[in-house]
Design goal:
By secondary structure, the chain is α/β, with parallel strands linked by helices. Helices cover 44% and strands 14% of the residues.
């Protein structure tokens, strides 16, 4: 009798990745990034939480629900939460945010699976790093946008432009990666206030898969 040959489905080898983000700009930027780094070995779902940038508690609950799934049934190999930090600081919720974040990351299921990708004040600061290296504190997104316009003169916070911003910035990506790496690895004084972005880490982790 001929022995049956078992072939594991290609789909079983695929990594499933969830990227949660705050708004339209982030959604389209990450969509463009995904097209550049994506391979047949993993799939990426981008889930924008439009109009809920101040409701991080609900997003944390959603992530916790995923973590509560039995280990062998977890729907995502990796989860990224990409968020602007300006609202947390403006509403004086940063302490609550950090507490919930620490609790989530302390869960065994989160190890090497859950990543927070923050920008202070917002993603526009990441865009700015494509042109200059600075960690000066921008207290609001509008401040960062104003500085960005000095270099990216056609920038506008609209869905139409959000679809092309990645491609406009792509020639300067290595500079942004280097600038963000240096800012994020710098030794800081206690309670030092500065701007930063960790979107470099999202890009680097996706490229490494």
């Amino acid at each position: 009798m001929r022995k049956r040959k078992y072939v594991r489905s290609k789909r079983a080898f695929k990594k499933s990745i969830l990227i949660i983000c705050d708004g339209i700009t982030e959604k389209h930027y990450i969509e463009s990034m995904k097209k550049e780094v994506n391979t047949q070995n993993y799939s990426i779902r981008i889930e924008p939480k439009l109009g809920r940038s101040d409701a991080f508690e609900k997003v944390f609950e959603d992530i916790e629900d995923i973590m509560d799934t039995p280990k062998d049934e977890l729907p995502y190999d990796l989860i990224f939460y990409v968020r602007d930090m300006d609202t947390c600081y403006r509403q004086k919720k940063i302490t609550a945010y950090k507490k919930l974040k620490k609790r989530l990351l302390s869960r065994p299921e989160a190890k090497n699976r859950l990543f927070f990708i923050e920008s202070r004040p917002c993603i526009e600061f990441w865009f700015l790093l494509h042109f200059i290296k600075t960690d000066r504190l921008f207290n609001s997104c509008s401040e960062a946008e104003k500085q960005l316009l000095s270099y990216l003169t056609n920038y506008e916070k609209t869905e139409q432009y959000a679809r092309t911003v990645y491609h406009d910035l792509r020639p300067h990506l290595q500079m942004a990666l280097d600038n963000a790496d240096e800012i994020n690895s710098k030794t800081r004084q206690r309670e030092e206030q500065y701007s930063y972005s960790e979107i470099n880490e999202l890009y680097q982790k996706l490229c490494a898969l």
